[in-house]
Fold:
Amino acid sequence: MIKTGSLLLSALVGVSALLCTTAATPVIANPNAVNPIPVINGTTGLPNLMGRTQAVFQVTGMASPNSTHTYNVLGTDLGIMWDNGRGEMLVAFGDTAGFGLPNLLSGSVWAWRSNILVRSHTKDPSNGIYFDSVVRDGLGQARDLIPSPKIPFLEISRIPTAGTSVGGVQYMSLMSVKSWDDIGRWSTNYSELAVSGDNGETWAELPETRRPNTGGNSKFQMNAFLADGGYIYEYGTPSGRNNAAYVARVPARDITNLGAYQYWDGARWQRNVDAAAPIMGGVSELSVMYNDYLGQYISLTTDPFDSVVMRRAASPAGPWSGPEVLIDTRELPSAYAPSIFPYQTGRDLYFLTTVHSQYNVLLMRTTL
Structure:
């Protein structure tokens, strides 16, 4: 476990010179070019947003009441939330920076993990989301759930994009990242499911669920889940940002059987993945949920301008409305990957989003 005091101070001083030269660009994909140290990275406290959405709470990092640095999570992104089927929320985070042996092969000054998980019983997030436990290694640090070799052009990361529970068993969708490419673009080898029967403590890959980044399966490299009416709906996009989105569905009991999936072709459901038709455009990391207050399905993502936007629909397949801006890119230009809080909160919509300039996850609130 990382210790506070002189050890932490020495480490901060040792990396500060490198961090001061790191540029935090709004839509860069490469997680190695990050600086999660408060003040040094130019951020102090929550951003003051003047539009429809307010920043409520810093969920991760050294400035968070969760003190995630005590298990060596100085910075992280995403924040994929779902209920475990027993009233507890699981949250999977993506590329995570901490102190330790730098991953110089991939250009990182940080020791970093590709996928970690915490648990929370927070149902009312108005004062924040607090963590109860974290999946740790033998040293007390947050550990990778599915290890990645982190070798460029082989696999640089294995990043969670969605999670759901079926019969008390946990399923997580991950993308295998082959390379970080141009701004907002990256290449994947495949997406796949991983499974956990012990509430997220240990995970096993399910190779039979792999979707290679070819043909129709290339439409489902980054995914979001919606559990509704006995089905799991899988919303997919190609790797990278600013893409079309597609939707599939499968009976929940058959979530691991790719042959049981049906794909929306714009008029009906059919088995052929190649027939999947776009349901919305200009989509990046995506989150979808039914909202009781609105009586509609809603989706959150960032648009081509890096604003956080919401769409509405009467059914899981759409048609989906045009985007409504929740956070204008001019207010918070480095926000991405909004993820909807999994419990209903009336007129208030809560969601997590990553702020790249500080490389940590914040809780946001929008009044519907």
Q: What stands out?
A: The mean pLDDT is 92. DSSP finds one helix and 23 strands in the chain.
